[in-house]
Fold this sequence. Notes:
With 237 residues, the protein is α+β, with helices and mostly antiparallel strands. It contains ten helices and six strands; from the N terminus they run ββββαααβαβαααααα. The strands form two sheets. Strands 1, 2, 3 and 4 form a four-stranded antiparallel β-sheet that branches. It has a two-stranded parallel ribbon with strand order 5-6. Helix 4 links the parallel strand 5 and strand 6 (136-137). Helix 3 (84-93) runs antiparallel to helix 5, helix 7 runs antiparallel to helix 8 and helix 8 (190-197) packs across helix 10.
Amino acid sequence: MTESGAPRRAYETVRxxxxxxxxxxxxxxxxxxxxxxxxxxxxxxxxxxxxxEEWRAQPARLDISRAPLTRILGTALDRIPPSRAGxxxxxxxxxxxxxxxxxxxxxxELARRQSELWQPLLDWFARDLDAPLAVTTGVRAVPQxxxxxxxxxxxxxxxxxxxxxxxxxAVGAAxxxxxxxxxxxxxxxxxxxxxxxxxxxxxxIERWGEDEETSQRRARLRADLELADRWLRLLGA
Length: 237
């Protein structure tokens, strides 16, 4: 909330303290909690300190939009555990219509760029995740190898709730499981992930220009990829 009806900041000090299983953020002496009442316990100090900084920077009237890491932490603790199977299934389903598997036949320049940018990602996906995916021309999906889909599900099942929360943001923003997982693995940085996810759109913009709606959408996509990357890097710090 950012309007005059937003709650006023009712704390003076923000600090990070150790707790069983991780670190919590203390507003004065009270642990920071999610809207559901869960104590927001970060698995590592670096993430907890970054969350604490969001609350140190809050204005007199709280603006939760300025606390995106806090929001993701709440999602990881409150929303993912009870719906874990559904989250995994939703992410795995991206592989069945995977963006980087759908190549253009024309124009040749677009086809060339897709091959140069996307094929190394598919090669990495096949090698490191043991999940080769079939490539097709056009928009119609082709069946993907069952063994590859099973491998993807195993990888997803092995992620903790915190990494699952970050990966979900990356995949949803990119519209691609391969791009999202490459970002999570450090194979791509946010700018490279944006270029991969927006290759087709960028190609069209070069020819026809960019309208305001498209510009705003792409700005949100960049911001989401940068946020997902920051979250995932903080988990590893």
